[in-house]
Amino acid sequence: EISFAGETVRTLAGNGMKGSDYEGGRKGMSQVLNSPWDVCLDSSSGIVYIAMAGQHQIWKHNIMDGITRAFSGDGYERNLNGSNSRNTSFSQPSGISLSSDMQELFVADSESSSIRVVNLKTGGSRLLAGGDPLFADNLFQFGDRDGTGTEAQFQHPLGVLCGSNGLVYIADSYNHKIKVLDPVTRKVSTLVGTGNAGFKDGVAQLAQ
Length: 208
Known about the structure:
Elements: E1 2-3, E2 8-9, E3 24-27, E4 36-42, E5 47-52, E6 57-62, E7 67-72, E8 93-98, E9 104-109, E10 114-119, E11 125-130, E12 147-148, E13 159-162, E14 168-172, E15 177-181, E16 187-192
Antiparallel strand pairs: 1-2, 3-7, 4-5, 5-6, 6-7, 8-9, 9-10, 10-11, 12-16, 13-14, 14-15, 15-16
Protein backbone atom coordinates (compact mmCIF):
# COMPACT_ATOMS: atom_id res chain seq x y z
CA GLU A 1 0.00 0.00 0.00
CA ILE A 2 1.58 3.28 -1.16
CA SER A 3 0.71 6.61 0.42
CA PHE A 4 1.55 9.41 -1.98
CA ALA A 5 0.81 12.02 0.67
CA GLY A 6 2.96 10.39 3.34
CA GLU A 7 5.49 8.94 0.87
CA THR A 8 5.33 5.58 2.66
CA VAL A 9 4.99 1.95 1.58
CA ARG A 10 3.31 -0.75 3.70
CA THR A 11 3.15 -4.49 2.92
CA LEU A 12 -0.41 -5.86 3.02
CA ALA A 13 0.31 -9.50 2.20
CA GLY A 14 3.25 -11.71 1.30
CA ASN A 15 6.73 -11.91 2.75
CA GLY A 16 8.87 -12.01 -0.38
CA MET A 17 8.90 -15.80 -0.57
CA LYS A 18 7.17 -17.63 -3.42
CA GLY A 19 4.12 -19.48 -2.09
CA SER A 20 2.32 -22.64 -3.19
CA ASP A 21 -0.93 -22.10 -1.28
CA TYR A 22 -4.10 -22.42 -3.37
CA GLU A 23 -6.54 -21.49 -0.57
CA GLY A 24 -5.15 -18.67 1.55
CA GLY A 25 -6.91 -17.34 4.62
CA ARG A 26 -3.95 -16.00 6.57
CA LYS A 27 -3.41 -12.46 7.75
CA GLY A 28 -0.90 -9.90 6.56
CA MET A 29 2.62 -11.01 5.74
CA SER A 30 1.97 -14.54 7.02
CA GLN A 31 0.01 -15.22 3.81
CA VAL A 32 2.51 -16.09 1.07
CA LEU A 33 1.75 -15.19 -2.55
CA ASN A 34 2.88 -16.47 -5.94
CA SER A 35 3.58 -13.90 -8.66
CA PRO A 36 0.81 -11.34 -8.15
CA TRP A 37 0.79 -9.33 -11.37
CA ASP A 38 -2.04 -6.85 -10.94
CA VAL A 39 -4.44 -5.45 -8.35
CA CYS A 40 -7.60 -3.36 -8.29
CA LEU A 41 -9.59 -1.93 -5.40
CA ASP A 42 -13.32 -2.01 -4.71
CA SER A 43 -13.37 0.99 -2.37
CA SER A 44 -16.99 0.39 -1.37
CA SER A 45 -16.21 -3.01 0.16
CA GLY A 46 -12.54 -2.55 1.02
CA ILE A 47 -11.58 -5.54 -1.12
CA VAL A 48 -8.40 -5.60 -3.18
CA TYR A 49 -8.61 -8.13 -6.02
CA ILE A 50 -5.34 -9.76 -7.07
CA ALA A 51 -4.35 -11.36 -10.38
CA MET A 52 -2.32 -14.25 -8.96
CA ALA A 53 -0.59 -15.28 -12.18
CA GLY A 54 1.68 -17.83 -10.53
CA GLN A 55 -1.25 -19.78 -9.08
CA HIS A 56 -3.57 -19.26 -12.09
CA GLN A 57 -6.17 -17.78 -9.74
CA ILE A 58 -7.89 -14.56 -8.69
CA TRP A 59 -7.39 -13.75 -5.00
CA LYS A 60 -8.79 -11.05 -2.75
CA HIS A 61 -7.43 -9.10 0.21
CA ASN A 62 -9.75 -7.61 2.82
CA ILE A 63 -8.35 -4.28 3.97
CA MET A 64 -10.44 -4.32 7.15
CA ASP A 65 -9.23 -7.61 8.64
CA GLY A 66 -6.01 -8.10 6.65
CA ILE A 67 -7.02 -11.57 5.42
CA THR A 68 -5.98 -12.68 1.92
CA ARG A 69 -7.57 -15.71 0.28
CA ALA A 70 -8.32 -17.35 -3.07
CA PHE A 71 -11.49 -16.03 -4.72
CA SER A 72 -11.84 -17.64 -8.14
CA GLY A 73 -10.11 -20.49 -9.94
CA ASP A 74 -9.09 -24.01 -8.99
CA GLY A 75 -5.41 -23.47 -9.76
CA TYR A 76 -5.25 -25.64 -12.89
CA GLU A 77 -3.78 -23.86 -15.91
CA ARG A 78 -6.56 -23.82 -18.47
CA ASN A 79 -9.35 -21.67 -19.92
CA LEU A 80 -12.35 -23.17 -18.14
CA ASN A 81 -15.47 -21.15 -17.41
CA GLY A 82 -17.98 -22.23 -14.78
CA SER A 83 -20.83 -21.06 -12.59
CA ASN A 84 -18.72 -20.78 -9.43
CA SER A 85 -15.12 -20.40 -8.30
CA ARG A 86 -14.50 -24.14 -7.95
CA ASN A 87 -15.29 -25.03 -11.55
CA THR A 88 -13.41 -22.10 -13.06
CA SER A 89 -9.77 -22.19 -14.20
CA PHE A 90 -7.43 -19.48 -15.43
CA SER A 91 -4.18 -19.48 -17.34
CA GLN A 92 -1.80 -16.88 -15.95
CA PRO A 93 -4.31 -14.09 -15.31
CA SER A 94 -2.18 -10.97 -15.68
CA GLY A 95 -4.44 -7.92 -15.75
CA ILE A 96 -7.71 -7.16 -13.96
CA SER A 97 -10.20 -4.30 -13.84
CA LEU A 98 -13.56 -3.81 -12.16
CA SER A 99 -16.61 -3.22 -14.34
CA SER A 100 -18.25 0.21 -14.22
CA ASP A 101 -21.13 -1.18 -12.11
CA MET A 102 -18.67 -2.92 -9.74
CA GLN A 103 -20.43 -6.26 -10.23
CA GLU A 104 -17.83 -8.01 -12.37
CA LEU A 105 -14.09 -8.26 -12.83
CA PHE A 106 -12.54 -8.23 -16.30
CA VAL A 107 -9.49 -10.47 -16.66
CA ALA A 108 -6.71 -10.52 -19.23
CA ASP A 109 -6.02 -14.27 -19.17
CA SER A 110 -2.66 -14.09 -20.88
CA GLU A 111 -1.67 -17.70 -21.56
CA SER A 112 -5.08 -18.52 -23.06
CA SER A 113 -4.99 -15.26 -25.07
CA SER A 114 -8.50 -14.40 -23.96
CA ILE A 115 -10.51 -11.77 -22.13
CA ARG A 116 -12.80 -13.13 -19.46
CA VAL A 117 -15.15 -11.74 -16.84
CA VAL A 118 -15.68 -12.94 -13.25
CA ASN A 119 -18.96 -12.60 -11.35
CA LEU A 120 -18.06 -11.02 -8.01
CA LYS A 121 -20.97 -12.73 -6.24
CA THR A 122 -20.35 -16.31 -7.38
CA GLY A 123 -16.71 -16.35 -8.44
CA GLY A 124 -17.76 -17.99 -11.70
CA SER A 125 -16.53 -16.76 -15.06
CA ARG A 126 -17.49 -16.47 -18.70
CA LEU A 127 -15.49 -15.97 -21.87
CA LEU A 128 -15.92 -12.61 -23.60
CA ALA A 129 -13.42 -12.72 -26.46
CA GLY A 130 -10.51 -14.70 -27.83
CA GLY A 131 -9.30 -18.11 -26.69
CA ASP A 132 -10.76 -21.51 -27.49
CA PRO A 133 -14.44 -21.80 -26.48
CA LEU A 134 -14.51 -25.59 -26.85
CA PHE A 135 -11.27 -27.01 -25.46
CA ALA A 136 -10.23 -25.58 -22.10
CA ASP A 137 -6.71 -27.05 -22.30
CA ASN A 138 -5.93 -25.49 -25.68
CA LEU A 139 -3.70 -22.52 -24.87
CA PHE A 140 -2.56 -22.03 -28.46
CA GLN A 141 -5.64 -20.31 -29.89
CA PHE A 142 -3.97 -16.97 -30.50
CA GLY A 143 -3.52 -14.49 -33.33
CA ASP A 144 -4.31 -10.92 -34.28
CA ARG A 145 -7.84 -10.49 -35.52
CA ASP A 146 -10.66 -8.07 -34.81
CA GLY A 147 -14.12 -9.55 -34.57
CA THR A 148 -16.87 -10.59 -32.21
CA GLY A 149 -16.46 -12.95 -29.27
CA THR A 150 -14.23 -15.92 -29.98
CA GLU A 151 -13.83 -14.84 -33.61
CA ALA A 152 -11.48 -12.17 -32.27
CA GLN A 153 -7.91 -13.16 -31.48
CA PHE A 154 -5.26 -11.81 -29.12
CA GLN A 155 -1.72 -12.85 -28.36
CA HIS A 156 -0.77 -12.88 -24.68
CA PRO A 157 -2.74 -9.83 -23.48
CA LEU A 158 -1.22 -8.53 -20.25
CA GLY A 159 -3.38 -5.56 -19.27
CA VAL A 160 -7.04 -4.61 -19.21
CA LEU A 161 -8.95 -1.51 -18.09
CA CYS A 162 -12.67 -0.78 -17.98
CA GLY A 163 -13.30 2.85 -18.87
CA SER A 164 -16.02 5.12 -17.52
CA ASN A 165 -17.85 4.53 -20.82
CA GLY A 166 -18.12 0.81 -20.04
CA LEU A 167 -15.72 -0.23 -22.80
CA VAL A 168 -12.77 -2.47 -21.99
CA TYR A 169 -9.30 -1.46 -23.20
CA ILE A 170 -6.80 -4.27 -23.73
CA ALA A 171 -3.00 -4.28 -23.92
CA ASP A 172 -2.58 -6.95 -26.61
CA SER A 173 1.07 -7.25 -25.74
CA TYR A 174 2.57 -9.62 -28.30
CA ASN A 175 0.58 -7.99 -31.11
CA HIS A 176 1.89 -4.54 -30.11
CA LYS A 177 -1.63 -3.11 -30.09
CA ILE A 178 -4.25 -1.55 -27.85
CA LYS A 179 -7.66 -3.02 -28.57
CA VAL A 180 -11.12 -2.14 -27.32
CA LEU A 181 -13.90 -4.55 -26.38
CA ASP A 182 -17.60 -3.79 -25.96
CA PRO A 183 -18.64 -6.25 -23.22
CA VAL A 184 -22.28 -6.08 -24.31
CA THR A 185 -21.84 -6.91 -28.00
CA ARG A 186 -18.44 -8.64 -27.44
CA LYS A 187 -17.09 -6.78 -30.46
CA VAL A 188 -13.31 -6.28 -30.49
CA SER A 189 -11.52 -3.69 -32.62
CA THR A 190 -8.00 -2.31 -32.84
CA LEU A 191 -7.69 1.14 -31.31
CA VAL A 192 -3.95 1.86 -31.53
CA GLY A 193 -1.00 0.21 -33.24
CA THR A 194 0.08 -1.36 -36.52
CA GLY A 195 1.05 -4.77 -35.20
CA ASN A 196 4.76 -3.98 -35.44
CA ALA A 197 6.94 -3.13 -32.47
CA GLY A 198 8.22 0.43 -32.42
CA PHE A 199 8.31 3.77 -30.66
CA LYS A 200 6.45 6.24 -32.83
CA ASP A 201 3.72 8.75 -32.07
CA GLY A 202 1.04 9.56 -34.60
CA VAL A 203 -2.56 8.88 -35.46
CA ALA A 204 -3.91 5.81 -33.71
CA GLN A 205 -3.66 3.28 -36.52
CA LEU A 206 -0.11 4.36 -37.44
CA ALA A 207 1.40 4.71 -33.98
CA GLN A 208 3.86 2.07 -32.78
